[in-house]
């Protein structure tokens, strides 16, 4: 299959890696030039084409090869960008199948009604799992058996934490991890890039084993 | 009529004042609550602080009874999404979208959105301001 991915953040990166291993041809659009170079360096070969630009811009989509794409998957960190990318793909270029990631779980239904074929919210899935009070160790095991070097982990933000007072955007860019959910004052919060971490927040992280290890050593269990 | 304006910036505020002087009821949404300070003392608009692409925020602003919505935030894709939610999920009759990127405006027009591009309008006016050929 020929897959066009919009957004080369952590989700886009691992999606590219996974789909590539399953013998798909990947085209990926990312706005940040440095990030594009990283992706090219890490994953680049003849089955991957990286384009630097705006995935909601028709010219950029054309340049990336949307006319050959069987499916478009929009996984930027902004729901509005993912929706617009899917709409342009479907209504303007006639791409058969569109998939969008949403940050706000309330957008799952809205996106479907607005014509996106598949809508995925990792936040919703994890929040559900927590709500169902699935045993934490079982959840971790589930993730670990399905992905070799990826881990799900939980830390508590202490007063000394280098994350305290910073937005998720700043944190994930520097450390290469994704913050999937936040437990604050007993309720699960759906974070976005602008969410600021506070002391005592319980944070669920997703990322490479080695990156997480380093973070975990900075955040001792309490 | 009951009208919603998303984006409490210069465009949103001027538009609210115009529409209000025509006798319409106005609700204005902005992500940043401090922006409402720019509305002036005399205005009696319903102000709602929050992400305007969040359905809960739009409901608070009265989208279920709105006759029209103007999305004029500084982010093109946010504006498009607001108009989509309003027209497709809440059957708001009139949606007008501000799109700054001229290359995006034709695409969005083809997707049946009523689009206003301030950049194109401004450039047209600048171009016509002086008639160099006749000088």
Low-confidence stretches of chain A: none
Looking across the biggest beta sheet of chain B, what order are the strands in? Answer: 3-2-1-4-5-6
What Rg of chain B do the Cα atoms give?
Answer: 16 Å
End-to-end separation of chain A: 47 Å
CATH superfamily of chain B: NAD(P)-binding Rossmann-like Domain
Most extensive protein-chain contact, per-chain counts: A-B, 20 and 20 residues
Shape estimate of chain B: globular
Q: Which band does the percent of strand residues of chain A land in?
A: 15-25%
- Give the C-level CATH assignment of the largest domain in chain A: Alpha Beta
Can you offer a commentary on this structure?
The complex is a heterodimer of chains A (222) and B (135). Chain A is globular. Chain A has 2 domains: 2-120, NAD(P)-binding Rossmann-like Domain (Rossmann fold), CATH 3.40.50; 125-218, Regulator of K+ conductance, C-terminal domain (Alpha-Beta Plaits), CATH 3.30.70. Chain A has helices at 10-21, 33-43, 58-64, 79-92, 107-113, 122-131, 136-146, 168-175, 209-218, and strands at residues 2-6, 25-30, 48-52, 71-74, 97-101, 118-120, 150-156, 178-184, 187-189, 202-208. The longest helix of chain A has 14 residues, at 79-92. In chain A, the strands form 2 sheets. A 6-stranded parallel sheet of chain A has the order 3-2-1-4-5-6, sandwiched between helices. In chain A, strands 7-10-8-9 form a 4-stranded antiparallel sheet. Chain A is α/β, with parallel strands linked by helices. Chain A is built from 9 helices and 10 strands. The model of chain A has no long low-confidence stretch (mean pLDDT 85). In chain B, strands 3-2-1-4-5-6 form a 6-stranded parallel sheet, with helices on both faces. Chain B starts with a strand and ends in a 6-residue tail after the last helix. Chain B is globular, with a radius of gyration of 16 Å. In chain B, 39% of the residues lie in helices and 20% in strands. Chain B has one domain: NAD(P)-binding Rossmann-like Domain (Rossmann fold). The model of chain B has no long low-confidence stretch (mean pLDDT 93). With 135 residues, chain B is an alpha/beta fold. Chain B is built from 5 helices and 6 strands. At the A-B interface, helix 4 and helix 5 of A face helix 3 and helix 4 of B.
């Amino acid at each position: 299959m020929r897959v066009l991915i919009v957004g080369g953040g952590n989700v886009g990166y691992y999606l590219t890696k996974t789909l590539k291993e399953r013998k798909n041809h990947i085209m990926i659009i990312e706005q940040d030039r440095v990030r594009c170079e990283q992706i090219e360096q890490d994953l680049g070969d003849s089955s991957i084409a990286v384009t630097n630009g705006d995935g909601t811009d028709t010219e950029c989509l054309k340049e990336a090869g949307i006319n050959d794409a069987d499916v478009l998957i929009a996984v930027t960190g902004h729901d509005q960008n993912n929706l617009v990318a899917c709409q342009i793909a479907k209504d303007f270029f006639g791409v058969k199948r569109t998939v969008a990631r949403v940050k706000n779980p309330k957008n799952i239904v809205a996106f479907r009604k607005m014509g996106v074929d598949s809508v995925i919210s990792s936040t919703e899935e994890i929040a559900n799992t927590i709500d169902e009070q699935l045993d934490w160790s079982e959840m971790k095991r589930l993730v670990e058996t399905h992905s070799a070097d990826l881990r799900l982990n939980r830390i508590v933000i202490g007063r000394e934490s280098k994350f305290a007072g910073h937005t998720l955007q700043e944190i994930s860019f520097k450390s290469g991890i994704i913050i999937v959910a936040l437990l604050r004052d007993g309720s699960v919060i759906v974070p976005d890039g602008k969410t600021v971490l506070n002391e005592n927040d319980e944070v669920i992280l997703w990322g490479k084993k080695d990156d997480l290890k380093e973070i975990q050593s900075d955040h001792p269990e309490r | 009529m009951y009208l919603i304006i998303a984006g409490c910036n210069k465009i949103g505020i001027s538009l609210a004042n115009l529409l209000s002087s025509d006798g319409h009821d106005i609700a204005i949404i902005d992500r940043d609550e401090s922006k409402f300070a720019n509305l002036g003392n005399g205005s009696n608009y319903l102000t709602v602080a929050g992400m305007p692409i969040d359905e809960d925020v739009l409901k608070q602003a009265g989208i279920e009874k709105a006759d029209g919505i103007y999305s004029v935030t500084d982010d093109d894709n946010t504006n498009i999404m607001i108009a989509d939610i309003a027209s497709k999920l809440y059957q708001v009759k009139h949606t007008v979208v501000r799109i700054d990127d001229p290359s995006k405006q034709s695409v969005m027009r083809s997707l049946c959105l009523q689009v206003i591009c301030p950049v194109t309008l401004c450039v047209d006016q600048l171009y016509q301001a002086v008639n160099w050929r006749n000088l």
